[in-house]
Amino acid sequence: MPKAAVHSIKFTANVVLYALAALFLFPLYWMLSGAFKDQSSAVKFPPELFPSMPTTANFDKLIEGGMIFKWLGNSVIISVLATAGVCLVASMAGYALTKKRFAGSKLMFTAIVIAMFIPRQITLVPLFTMMVEMKLVNNLASVILPVISIPFAVFLMKQFSHSVPTELLEAGKIDGCSEIGLFFRIFLPIVKPALGALAIFAFTQSWNDYLWQLIMLSDNSKMTINVGISTLVTEYVANYGLQMAAATIGFVPVFVVFIVFQKYFVKGITLGSVKG
User: Fold this and answer.
1) Max Cα separation, the chain?
2) Could you read off the pLDDT of 123-172 as tens digits, one per residue?
3) What does 212-237 look like in DSSP terms, one character per residue?
4) Helix (DSSP H) and strand (DSSP E) numbers for the chain
5) Domain named ABC transmembrane type-1: which ranges (predicted)?
6) Which stretch of DSSP H or E encloses residue 265?
């Protein structure tokens, strides 16, 4: 193929990619710009792409009440504990399903795979009944516990666990390492990229789990940032600038987590593509 044709194809591909990137980033920009608009500018038609009179009044109003920080703190607590729980439980399950031989292991993994195809809405009623019986309604634990048992997390860690050489674990056992030592000292360091990818997935899943949080948390002081934002919309008033400001504040922790775990996420994706 002539060089001119190759350069033309690359140029066209780059233009398409940049256009798609701008398209996907536009909602984020609209949220950020809307946070600095007053109500009249937010509902103006045709809409303003750039705030003509930027204002921090929306952020000031959110900070004045202080409830936004309570909501944000609840979201952070829920997401961090849920992420830690998911990573620990899923890595243990992956370790057991790949490195331990026991009766029913294949049947158990099949059940986990099947559970991945069950729609989330079907599980809401049984989960709610369980939480009522455990007296955890309107408690942060009711939002954390269901996230820990994500079937996809177990599936992901099992697939990555195949990358850990069994011979290495056997060598550690010969050297006198206990089962807990094998798991924490040998197994976990090797699957660290997978844990990074899983941490991003679990944190985002827990942070954005609006429906279940809305069902379980009714006390204003127990609400998360997502549920709290919904309370800013009343029957007669919808302050879009205020909602955009609250959404911007809620976006920051997720962005920070992605930046911190980004290198592990990329390594995890690459490792998964090789080991399958």
Assistant:
1) 73
2) 889 999 999 999 888 889 999 988 888 888 888 888 888 888 888 888 88
3) HHHHH--SGGG--HHHHHHTTB-SS-
4) 15, 0
5) 72-261
6) helix 240-275
Rounded CA separation 95/186 (Å): 11
Tokens of 104: 């029913």
Angle at the Cα of 69 from the Cα atoms of 68 and 70, rounded to 5 degrees = 90
Q: Please give the structure tokens belonging to residue 53.
A: 């009179």
Q: How confident is the model at residue 81 (pLDDT cuts 50, 70, 90)?
A: very high
DSSP codes of every residue in 107-141 = HHHHHHHHHTTS-HHHHHHHHHHHHHHTT-TTSTH
For 171, residues 6+ apart whose C-beta sits below 8 A from its C-beta are none
Look at residues 9, 241, 194, 3 and name the one whose alpha carbon lies nearest to residue 93: 194
Nearest one of 75, 57, 60 to 250, comparing CA atoms: 75
Tell me the Ramachandran region of residue 138: left when phi exceeds 0, alpha when psi lies from -120 to 50, beta otherwise.
left
Alpha carbons 113 and 111: distance in angstroms, whole number? 5
Could you give all domains of the chain from N- to C-terminal order, each with its CATH number?
Answer: 58-275 (1.10.3720.10)
Q: What is the pTM of this model?
A: 0.79
Q: Which two tokens stand for residue 99?
A: 């490195």
The token pair that represents 92 in the structure block: 């243990």
- Is residue 78 very low, low, confident or very high in pLDDT (cuts 50, 70, 90)? very high
Q: What is the identity of the amino acid at 83?
A: T
> Three-class SS of residue 238?
strand
DSSP letter assigned to residue 233 = B
Residue corresponding to tokens 């607590």? 77
Query: H or E stretch including 62?
Result: helix 57-65
| Nearest partner of 82 among 157, 142, 144, 149, judged by Cα | 144
